[in-house]
Design a protein that fits this description.
With 162 residues, the protein is mostly helical. The protein contains six helices and two strands; from the N terminus they run H-H-H-H-E-H-E-H. Helix 4 crosses helix 5.
Length: 162
């Protein structure tokens, strides 16, 4: 049974968690955080510690993209992390595409793929919604397959340079 020695959640953490709950589009992760916060405010040290761990930093975009356990908060994979990351990444990509398009504004497309992992399709749809490009210019693929198969089916082979 969790220890209940009159623990209080620090004001800054409480404020951050409440803001996250307001922004989170997923009812499951939003509910999980709400429950943890309620328990932590009720002096549940285990819940307070878990909140502190979940909000101890941000998930970093690495060479393999975003990788983490599914769950609530900025250190787990969830729709809000994907939405925030996609906004920054797509803003950069769209600036570069605008430079490359020149007079043919919006001619180039952004392709958003996903694989067979849990919630991958939801994360792709969340990414597409984060794009400022016109509808049809940034849409998720409809194929669901392991990533290597998706790449083989959707991309042509390596070009030969002669």
């Amino acid at each position: 049974m969790p220890e209940t020695t009159n623990v209080t959640v620090k004001d800054e953490l409480r404020s951050t968690v409440r803001r996250w709950i307001q922004l989170d589009p997923d009812p499951a992760t939003r509910g999980e955080l709400s429950s943890l916060l309620t328990r932590a405010e009720g002096s549940d040290t285990e819940a307070a510690d878990q909140l502190a761990r979940l909000f101890a930093g941000r998930l970093a975009f690495g060479t393999a993209g975003l990788r983490a356990e599914l769950g609530p908060g900025p250190l787990r994979m969830n729709r809000l992390v994907v939405r925030q990351t996609a906004a920054g990444l797509l803003r950069h990509a769209e600036e570069k595409l605008a430079e490359a398009d020149g007079d043919a504004a919006g001619a180039r497309r952004i392709v958003i793929g996903y694989d067979a992992r849990h919630q991958s399709d939801e994360f792709a749809a969340e990414t597409a919604r984060s794009s400022r490009r016109p509808a049809g210019r940034s849409t998720p693929s409809t194929d669901r397959a392991p990533l290597p198969c998706w790449l083989v089916r959707c991309w042509s082979g390596t070009p030969r340079w002669v």
